[in-house]
Amino acid sequence: MESILNIRNVSKIYQSAGRELTVLDQINFSIEAGSTVAITGPSGSGKTTLLGLCAGLDRASSGTVELKGIALEKLNEDERAAVRNQYVGFIFQNFQLLPTLTALENVMVPLELRGAKNIKAQAMELLEKVGLADRSHHYPVQLSGGEQQRVSLARAFSNQPAILFADEPTGNLDAETSEKVIKLLFDLNKDAGTTLVIVTHDLELAARTTRTIKIKGGIIISDENPSYA
Amino acid sequence: MPNTSLKQSIKFSWLFKMAWRDSRKNRSRLLLFISSIVLGIAALVAVYSFKDNLQRDIDAQAKELTGADLVLDSRKGVSKAMQKMLDSLGDERSQEKTFASMIYFQSDGGSRLVQMKALEGKYPYYGSIETTPVAAADHFQEDRNALVDQTLMLQFNAKVGDSVKVGDLNFKISGALNKAPGQNGIAASVAPIVYIPLKYLAQTNLIKTGSRINNKFYFRYDDPSGVDEWVRKNEPKLEKEGFDADTVESRKEQTGRSFKDVNRFLALSGFIALLLGCVGVGSAIHVYIQEKLSAIATLRCLGLKSRHAFFIYLIQIFFIGLIAAILGAILGTGIQFLLPLVLKDFLPVEITMQVSWPAVGQGILLGLIISILFALPSLLSVRKISPLNAIRISFEKTGGKRDLLTWIVYLLMAAFIVGFTHLQMKTWAQTLAFAISIGVAFVLLIILSKLLMFLVKTLLPKSSSYLWRQGFANLYRPNNQTLMLTVSIGLSTAFICTLFFVQGILMSRVTLSSGSNQPNMVMFDIQNTQKERIDSLTKSFNLPLMNQVPVITMRIEEINGKKASADTNNRRAYRNEIRATYQDTLTAAEKIVDGKWIGKIKPNEKVYISLDQRYAQQINVGLNDKILFNVQGMMIPTVVGSLREVNWSRMQTNFRVVFPAGVLEEAPQFHVLMTRVPTSELSAKFQGEVVKNFPNVSVIDLDLILKLLDELLDKIGFVIQFMAGFSMVTGWIVLISAVLTSKNQRIKESILLRTIGASRKQILAINAIEYFFLGAFAAGAGLILALGGSWALAKFSFDAAFVPPFLPTTGLFVSVVLIVVITGVLSTRSILNQPPLKILRTEG
User: Fold this and answer.
1) Which residues form the AAA+ ATPase domain (chain A) (predicted)?
2) CA within 20 to 30 Å of B217's CA: B21, B420, B509, B670, which one?
3) What is the mean pLDDT of the segment spanning A141-152?
4) Does residue A139 fall inside a structural domain?
5) Among B1, B6, B393, whose Cβ lies nearest the Cβ of A82?
6) What are B437-466's pLDDT values in tens digits?
7) A100, B387: Cβ pair inside 8 Å?
8) pTM, 2 dp
9) Residue range(s) defining the domain that contains residue A208
């Protein structure tokens, strides 16, 4: 299968208190289109940094990140933003809904950024899928944590992304709500045929993916069911 | 690489839609942030509108102000050649002699010093002398009639038909004078006007040698287009003859010019209010953008380009700024209607207030520019917000290093302040002094706040109680508000206090003291022959002879051998008539600062005179310079022997030129006598006797003048306070909004502390300690800056001494600290009143 994400010799070094801090060291892997991948590891292992690099939120100190064949390190911030809008969806641990926008408007934003047509109907359809059609005009503050994450899921899928990055998607939810949200995430993903990359501590959640990459101290310590090594 | 497919087609309309959505729930708060510029714009629009209306009315009414196409006036006599010229001018002519004189009301027995105008001809040709009855102005010259100022008639219970004595002659009051051409309220109350026909002036016997008479000649032209050109051509000749020329055009310029200073002061007060507004906008938008960090990062994750994020917030600021500017313009247009009420006594024209659209437009534009310009540094940082903030809240704040664009914006801000200050100040020296002072204050406050953080961090005793440690630690921990609050509170306090101090300096400068042993009545124009008799009359009323001096009128003929025509750089010295005296000893108000005082000389000795040091500076002479005086035809050569410092505010006659005794005793002269009259009844009785026995002697009732002056100063004081009030209110708004906006930094911490069990009292105490220390430090710094600034202004600008008033200074300091602490604690209290979870969810 075609690989959608290629990470080659990627390192990330921060300057901290005058010293160099290597957060990621020579990371290499590829992800096939349509696959589901979990990146796991203890706190401070570098997994969120890796997600940031994969999604084009940050630049690697060295190495290359290729998303849909586009070398992200060669793009400027605005070009990377365009890549994100076109190919990437996000789900955040703290939902990151825009507080001044209604649920419907939150879902519409990625489509509006694309200049798409008939977006309201598409957004409503997604809200229906996540079971929140009747809450479409509610603001985030009027929704529970689980509901907010469901709106976040609808938003993530609204621009029909080629790849979806989820950063601890259930980190702020109770077990019961987590289960519902995860089920919804995998169902939507299956319908849309999107590549799913989840950063998580939750081994149960990781087990649901087809592949798990384990990181510790900035290096990959295991890669189960890898398609590239 | 499929880069071409990455082009986003974001419509501008979507940015507007997004700006609208993003501003939801924040609009009222944004408006509060920007409200600080509403008052500044209001003040400026009011001042500009007033200026426009005044200029328009001056233009429209200049003819009525002048009353003729050409006015020539002189305090000197008229030479034959000049008389020939005067007779050849204009198609219609009038003549007026103006002088100070006493009038005596026969019915009431009261007397009062007035401005006597003896008129011949049909002046004014434009406008009118307003009288009751109306016809009196046209017919009073036909007989021995007088037009008497209406307030004066009320004061002395006089009616039309009553009689007034002017000098030796009685006149019938044929009308009450409501308004003379070009007269304003204040001038009328200080020196009320009385018109009499010129043809009777000689019979009054008021005109004696040395009398101070202003001769005015009014001309009307059928075709006045060449008048200004004629004046330009004949200026040297007129000057030589001691004549001043006034035309409609020159009056327009003059009147406009005399109000320029007033307008400049008003505009500067408005500008200070606006500058405070800028500080308010800057700090408020900074906080607003900080709060939007997470939303912006999320939008960036979703693919929003940095410049589009910038535009979303720029659009918000544009519209909120526009609303604030429009509100300010509406408020200012309303306030402009108040300004003429406050200033009407000083205005020579009838003000017809209208909405001045250029002023409104200027105000709105200015409000908009300021809102955007001072929001730009924070707005530009939006472009630097990394999308990583969405997954790592603590990743970074709004971008690290400032880029070129930000520096350009800082430059533009500085250029704006300098440019706008220059528009108000007109001179570059003052502009730079003002702008540099602001810059220095700003930098000093930044340095001080950094120093404060360093000192607190280093010196905070580890053993102090938790509440104190936490309160103080808030001053330097991450997310601290020390820098922002120190700068905004410090600058607001500095502005508020400086205005307060400057107001005090200005007021004390113009306040005259009238102590119980100071003279309160002045008699002048006392002839040599009348001196002894007036002394006896005064003594017979048991009144003291407090200050008795001779006055001699003279002109400078030559300085160091140079005549006026050869000394083109120093024309002023030769032009004005000088009133000098002679005395053998210095008075208590005089102090020799240079040279040697010589009080008496013998005949044929060199005449060493003494000059007031400021006057000497003005006419460019120093010690040992030779001055030739023309004392009514007699040339007296003198040498500058000493320079004196004169305390002009002492209630006594002071002179710029003092001769030694032994020179001018035989010159034509009059005498001035000062006395103190204990009661107003005795004052009226004494004045009556003086006028009856010595009709040419003028009496000034200083109590009356001081009362009028007091009223005048009250009005000036009110204008100053009125405009300074704008800046002060804006300062308070900025201060309060700075504290209110900073509360957001503390909300989460307070709630977290509350969640883990801190009592309400403990949290309030922590916040109170932080705000108290911040308030005290910032207010103290602002106060010190204000004291320094006021001292410098007093010394270099107003030439006055500055003694900071202890109580008001302490009061201002305590008020600022209290406002900071109360606003800070109240904002925390409102949060503590709600369940922690609710706040956490709202904020999360």
Assistant:
1) 33-218
2) B670
3) 90
4) yes
5) B6
6) 888 888 888 898 888 888 888 887 777 787
7) no
8) 0.69
9) 3-224
